[in-house]
Design a protein that fits this description.
By secondary structure, the chain is an alpha/beta fold. It has one domain (about 1-200): Flavodoxin domain (Rossmann fold, 3-Layer(aba) Sandwich), CATH 3.40.50. It has five helices and six strands; from the N terminus they run βαβαβαβαββα. Strands 1, 2, 3, 4, 5 and 6 form a six-stranded parallel β-sheet that branches. α1 (about 15-30) packs across α5 (about 155-185). The longest helix is centred in the last third of the chain and has 32 residues, at about 155-185. The two termini are about 20 Å apart.
Amino acid sequence: MKILAVYGSTGHESQSLKMISLMAESARAEGAELEMLDLLTTPLPMFRADCSFADDALVASVRGQCLEADGFMLVSPEYHGCMSNWMKNFFDFHYHEFAGKLFALAASTGGSMGVSVNTQMRVAVQHCHGWALPYQAAVRTSDLAPSGEIVNSSAVDRLQRMGRDLVCYGRLLRSRFVADRSQAAEVSAEHKSAYGFAGWYA
């Protein structure tokens, strides 16, 4: 199973990277293949509805990564109660690439519990016909040691569980979606509804 781990921090050596690294470690232990996507060092252009970006090599590359992924980890810092501009712009470039795939969502925050950020990402995933794990994570500044290490054992535990669950449940969801989509491709348009929303992608 291929997982694309996306973090939308606006600074290097970020809290988001530490969080996604903990999830990635657990996912690899379950046999997943991980690819990291740092939106700070992979600066997509600002999305515009009146541009196709057909000739943009970076947009094509990231879309290809998303198409190949079987599941996603998304971690965003919280700015004024919202996901980062990098993360929102990442969402704006994609739609069908997320369908039938499972997402693990987490937020890094100054002091809140990251509910607003995680809810925004959850809604965006849902609108793209993806699934999100039924729980989420947040790491606050108070959860960190002076060195920047995450020392809150509850936060570490939750992130590790998310990495594991993303792979275990993501395999099941993805395999069924792919099977339904494949079978729907074999039937006429009036019978595709028998395969649920996967029929829309056949």
